[in-house]
From TrEMBL:
This is Planctomycete cytochrome C. Residues 559-656 form the Cytochrome c domain. Residues 1-27 form the signal peptide. Gene3D superfamilies: 2.60.120.200. Keywords: Heme, Iron, Metal-binding, Signal.
């Protein structure tokens, strides 16, 4: 400022270099420092963050003691501050007992939240390294309390006794409202004498109290930490001042009352800055027939509108609607097209010109938070801000009554506000609706934002539509609103797709360069030649398989075939699973069991592991039967079962024959090709994850063209449902593990949405994986950054390294988390080297992830477990798998990177570069396995010691993936168009040895849990009517605290509903009906570790769930207005109805035997199955129940409400009243019987 009555001007602030150092004096008559903000001048003090100079300060005529051009400084908050170094020991800024202090400032508060403690100026408590956290020597602050700004003084003391409170805060009992212009504040105090404390506001001494820590005479904390203006605690938002500052003084005396009274002189009353403008925004011309919706992020607060001096942020994106109805905002993406977070609060502005007849009409507005509506320039109605709630204890909100009979009621905690508007002319009027979505502690969602009108003289409300739209009136009813919400969802998805793909195109040039480099590498490292065969084939896969296997007469069998079969089917699997993992390639103890000769030779003990003919003298059997823990084999896990030991004993007794594999042992004759009905069902399930519709099947069967299978494959590969079908596999493989309640072990963010977007956009797999590993976007709103999270894990990046090695490199490192792998060549250092690359810095092994030294003292035998990495030892970011993968960290790699100095990008590039042949082959093997039922390498996640059955074909598939720019759909097409894929599923490749794995046929596969349940909904035509996956449906928590995962429409979208509190109030009954079926067939939402294979063994729950579960009973019911009911009503004959049911559920027509069984119950009463129209009684919907949420779930009624919902779910939907009960029940029995055919859950 340029003060008239202050002659001392010590500080000037500039944008570039901050401020000049204050004059430092010891004389009592002058301040220790006094900052006035005037001309620019280079200084040693540093600005940090958003600081703006040359803003108007206190000026005449309101403040006559200041110059007409007086300037102040504005702080944005968020850690913006000025930093001044303390001169050192015994400086003028050090205050001890007996020292007097006065702190004063002129302040203009723009924002102050309830509970904020915004710093004006303070010494210490900066968070700087080398200083205690409790080192506040003094501080002048503003505290938000009861809607007022209270003056606060804070300091810390040196504790005299242990556990003694050493923070002391004095707060004024009076204050002023923020946003009321410039105010002068001051505190005065003599340290050690609490009764001397004074607080001043606008030249008046106001009472106060020691409200924290109480009064004290203890010595204040003193050190050489910095003086900060505008913030503290490393720039914490809640401690950062937002507004203007001027004339800040630090005095080493308690200024007398006359002086402090004279500091403030104002002419007139304080300005009422909160008198927000109510003028309708001027928006210019708007497109006819549309509601223009713009979204403006980064508003100052969710509980107020902008002040006159503030500017509305520019629109971040826009969307056009057909009515004043909106329940969502577009998704936010970063510049790679990865989901990011909105900077909440977000202003949602809807505007259109609307035709209303003359008259006085009622406007109804519904909004979750603050909103206001204008009609024809008149501010008609407003709603209140969204407010938080206590955890669990909020009263149950009653159900809102509809505004008129038959109308849609307002949803839970959705505000309703009404107003009157007078329309005088018959012409379109401008309508504008502003609503604030979300906030710093709330999800940016608008709720069901609605603007409706009841015309004068009418009873019904209609949702407002724009003029020029040739649509019928939009009644405010459930049916009309829900139909429009579905349309909004569709158009919003299209906008999100366009926005995402446009943003992602920023990286296209880089990935084009990457793929050109891959083509160059392929030119130097060509694929194996596709072999020529005796049998004509156009598919390379069939050529490779035909070349590797010559058909034989399977009826001819050698004399040794039975014994060979016994060895390879019973003995060798036991040796492989229990012994060869250690005594195979790794030769533990000098013993190898990779062949009979090596086993007879023995190991370091000198004893033969196998003595043919004498199992009791064979060291293998002696160790297997030993009860001595130091002798027993295997050394870890459960002992071998008696049944398995007896198999090995009999084999040794018979001479321990280890025959060579003979072709007669393996079925090499190719299976027959499947028919069209089986093919279309298999193709649909393998691509889009659901059975084909009745029309799909009939059209395909009637098509006589020779290439119809290839055309169907191409059609399905282009279907957006392709992404849905792959999601469950990716979520398991990458251990995506979000939670509804509280984070548990290895909980992640919902990076499912990153995967889903990538699959829908058909991102090349090298790009998709690279961007996943870069962990970008929002961790909680669906970005790949969610992959970085691993709750309650002492080394999250080590956990991610295990997942990545497992998923993309075929390297199993689970054991390496705590020690070197006993059954693999990987070490703990290998795992933490990858983790350090993820972390972009050296990492050390936490003590909790280290095998304690005492473990090795418990046993005299040499432990299989080795620890070569010392606890606390730093591991640098290093790539350990050059030899295994072929990818090397060299100069050629740098050419493929955008930032060569980023270890995380280096890791992503090393994994996905074309030189890494392992990556392309692992992906190819995983895709192959999904379609054929067994991998060329088994298991897909662990390649060590597991050779490929067809190495040349696998190399060709990997390089074909690279050649097609890593497009997995192209590789899927190659596999699906092969004769192998289209053969009968009678193969036994999954459990075979590599030598036995001939792929003469695909393996039989059961449908995944998601495919079963999704196909159930598809076949019945019913929508997935379940709750949104959230316990916070009203959006009153940040996504990092209580997230919402949306309302599922495919089964992969469910998340864990585990409820360790065992409270019905925390259940989602409709969702749990679906989850029950999913769980029975191997689905799990608690993915604490990566998983390639789910549990697929049959269990008693599966037939029980298919027969009697809540979901089965509901979906097989001819429910009111359901597709199954319509099918029965519209059927022309029992045979046509039966054909339709079979085509819908099992993709074929019934056999003669099936028709004979099922036609009888359908034919009985078929002609008279309909209830006469005048006797139809439409079912009435049950009364709505209050919403149970996280915020009210502890209330007594919450359990009762959710139990009532569970009861309704169990009862199922009401039956269709058009069908007579007896015939309908027989019809439902037929549907139930078809669903329970075994083929419904098996891939044909």
């Amino acid at each position: 400022m340029n003060s008239i009555h202050h002659c001392l001007c010590v500080i000037a602030i500039s944008v570039a270099s901050s401020i000049v150092a204050p004059a430092i004096v010891r004389a009592d008559e002058e301040p220790a420092a006094f900052w006035e903000f005037g001309p620019e001048e280079a200084t040693p003090i540093r600005p940090v963050g958003g600081i703006h100079r040359d803003v108007p300060g206190p000026r005449p005529p309101m403040f006559p003691d200041f110059s007409v051009n007086n300037s102040a400084v504005n702080f944005d908050g968020k850690g913006s501050r000025f930093v001044f170094d303390d001169p050192g020991d015994d400086s003028p800024f050090d205050f001890d007992n007996g020292d007097e202090i006065t702190l004063e400032a002129w302040i203009n508060i723009r924002d102050l939240n309830e509970g904020d403690h915004s710093y004006i100026i303070g010494k210490g408590r900066t968070g700087n390294p080398g200083f205690s956290r409790d080192n506040q020597n003094w501080a002048l602050r503003i505290r938000g309390l009861q809607g007022e700004a209270r003056v606060s003084f804070l300091f810390a003391t040196v504790p005299v006794q242990p556990q003694q409170r050493n923070w002391h805060r004095y707060t004024s009992l009076q204050g002023f409202r923020p946003r009321t212009g410039w105010h002068h504040i001051a505190v005065a105090y003599r340290f050690g004498e609490p009764k001397t404390m004074q607080t001043w506001i606008d030249g008046k001494k106001v009472p106060g109290t020691w409200d924290a820590g109480g009064p004290t005479s203890n010595t204040p904390a003193i050190d050489n930490d910095q003086i900060w203006i505008g913030s503290a605690l490393s720039g914490a938002a809640g401690n950062s001042f937002r507004g203007g500052l001027d004339s800040i003084g630090v005095h080493r005396v308690m200024l007398d009352e006359k002086t402090l009274q004279s500091r403030f002189r104002r002419v007139g009353k304080a300005p009422d800055m909160e008198s927000i403008s109510t003028e309708m925004p001027k928006l210019g011309d708007l497109e006819s027939g549309k509601v223009t919706v713009t979204f403006h992020e980064g508003l100052p607060n969710h509980d107020r509108w902008l002040y006159p001096e503030e500017t509305l942020p520019p629109s971040a994106t826009a969307w056009s609607g057909r009515s004043f109805l909106l329940d969502q905002i577009p998704l936010k993406y970063d510049d790679w097209g990865i989901r990011a977070s909105w900077k909440a609060p977000v202003l949602v502005r809807m505007a259109a010109d609307v035709s209303l007849p003359p008259g006085q009409h009622t406007i109804l507005m519904r909004a979750r938070g603050m909103a206001r509506a204008w009609v024809d320039g008149q501010l008609v109605t407003m709603s209140k801000p969204l407010v938080g709630a206590p955890h669990g204890e909020e009263p149950i909100t009653p159900v809102s009554p509809p505004p008129a009979p038959g109308h849609r009621p307002a949803w839970h905690r959705c505000q309703e506000a009404t107003g009157q508007v007078e329309i005088t002319a018959s012409k379109p009027v401008r309508v504008v609706l502003d609503a604030i979505a979300g906030g710093k502690r709330f999800r940016p969602e608008p709720g069901e934002l609605t603007l409706a009108v009841r015309l004068e003289g009418e009873e019904a409300f209609s949702v407002l539509r724009p003029a020029g739209l040739s649509e019928s009136p939009f009644p405010l009813t459930d049916t009309a609103v829900e139909n429009e919400l579905r349309r909004i969802e569709s158009t919003m998805t299209a906008l999100n797709d366009t926005t995402r793909r446009q943003a992602a195109s920023n990286q296209d040039a880089y990935w084009n360069k990457r793929h050109q480099a891959a083509h160059d590498w392929l030119a130097a490292n060509p694929s194996p030649a596709v072999p020529s065969t005796d049998q004509p084939t156009t598919n390379p896969i069939d050529a490779f398989l035909q070349a590797s296997t010559q058909p034989v007469d399977s009826t001819q069998e050698s004399p040794t075939a039975p014994k060979q079969h016994q060895f390879f089917t019973t003995v060798l699997p036991i040796l492989k699973s229990e012994c060869i993992r250690c005594h195979g390639e790794k030769d533990k103890g000098g013993l190898s069991l990779g062949s009979r000769d090596l086993a007879v030779l023995g190991g370091d003990s000198g004893e033969p592991a196998i003595k043919p003919g004498d199992p009791h003298a064979s060291e293998l059997i002696i160790r297997l039967r030993s009860e001595d823990d130091d002798m027993r084999m295997p050394p870890t896990g459960k002992p071998l079962s008696e049944e398995k030991i007896m198999v090995l004993e009999k084999w040794i007794t018979d001479g321990a024959k280890w025959p060579e594999m003979e072709s007669q042992m393996v079925a090499t004759e190719s299976a027959a090709l499947i028919g069209d009905t089986a093919f279309i069902r298999r193709a649909f399930l393998d691509t889009v994850g659901v059975v084909p519709s009745e029309n799909d099947v009939t059209e395909f069967l009637s098509d006589t063209s020779a290439d119809k299978r290839e055309r169907l494959i191409d059609q399905l590969l282009d279907d957006p449902r392709w992404a849905d079908n792959w999601m469950g596999y990716w979520l398991d493989m990458l251990a995506e593990n979000p939670t509804l309640i509280n984070a548990s072990l290895n909980s992640t963010g919902p990076f499912r949405w990153y995967l889903y977007d990538s699959l829908r956009d058909n991102k090349p797999i090298d790009r998709m994986v690279s961007e996943l590993l870069m962990m970008r976007g929002s961790a909680h709103d669906g970005g790949s950054a969610g992959f970085a999270l691993a709750a309650q894990n002492d080394s999250p990046f080590a956990a991610k390294s295990h997942i990545v090695g497992n998923a993309f490199l075929g390297i199993e490192m689970q054991c390496a988390r705590c020690h070197d792998s006993p059954y693999h060549s990987t070490s703990q250092r290998d795992l933490y080297s990858l983790a350090a690359m993820f972390a972009r810095k050296p990492l050390s092994v936490p003590k909790s992830s280290t095998v304690p030294a005492g473990f090795f003292k418990k046993s005299d035998r040499n432990s299989l477990i080795k620890v070569t990495l010392k606890p606390g030892e730093k591991v640098t970011p290093t790539w350990p798998f050059a030899e295994v993968t072929g990818a090397k960290d060299d100069k050629s790699l740098r050419a493929l990177m955008q930032r060569a100095d980023d270890p995380r990008e280096k890791l992503a590039t090393l994994i996905t570069a074309p030189q890494n042949q392992r990556f392309a082959q692992v992906i190819a093997n995983r895709i192959w396995r999904r379609y054929i039922g067994a991998g060329i390498v088994e298991p897909p996640q662990d390649w060590e010691g597991n050779p490929a059955s067809h190495p040349e074909m696998l190399e060709w598939l990997g390089k074909e993936l690279v050649a097609k720019d890593y497009d997995i759909k192209q590789l899927a097409r190659v596999i699906m168009t092969s004769q192998l894929y289209q053969r009968e599923a009678i193969g036994q490749n999954r459990d075979a040895t590599p030598e036995q794995r001939k792929f003469n046929a695909p393996d039989r596969r059961r449908l995944t849990a998601e495919q079963i349940a999704d196909s159930f909904f598809q076949a019945t035509g019913r929508e997935m009517d379940v709750e949104p996956m959230t316990l916070d449906p009203d959006g009153r928590a940040a996504t990092s605290t209580r997230n919402s995962y949306g309302k599922p429409n495919r089964c992969w979208m469910f998340v864990s509903n585990s409820n360790e509190r065992d409270r019905p109030s925390l259940t989602l009954p409709r969702a749990e009906a679906v989850i029950e079926m999913l769980t029975a067939f191997g689905w799990t939402a608690d993915r604490q570790a990566p998983k390639t294979d789910r549990e697929t063994e049959p269990n008693v729950l599966q037939p029980a769930v298919m027969a009697n579960s809540t979901l089965t009973i509901s979906l097989t019911k001819a429910a009111d207005a359901s597709p199954l009911a319509d099918l029965a009503v519209e059927a022309q004959s029992p045979q046509q109805l039966l054909d339709s049911l079979f085509l819908r559920f099992v993709s074929r027509r019934p056999t003669a035997a099936e028709s004979e069984i099922f036609l009888a119950p359908l034919s009985e009463g078929f002609a008279d199955r309909m209830v006469p129209e005048d006797q139809i009684v439409l079912p009435q919907a049950p009364p709505r129940l209050p919403q149970v949420t996280w915020w009210n779930h502890v209330r007594n009624d919450a359990n009762t409400i959710q139990q009532e919902i569970a009861s309704r779910v169990l009862q199922g939907p009401p039956a269709d009243p058009r069908l007579k009960t007896a015939w309908r029940q027989r019809y439902e029995d037929v549907v139930w019987s078809i669903v329970n055919l075994r083929e419904f859950v098996w891939m044909p």
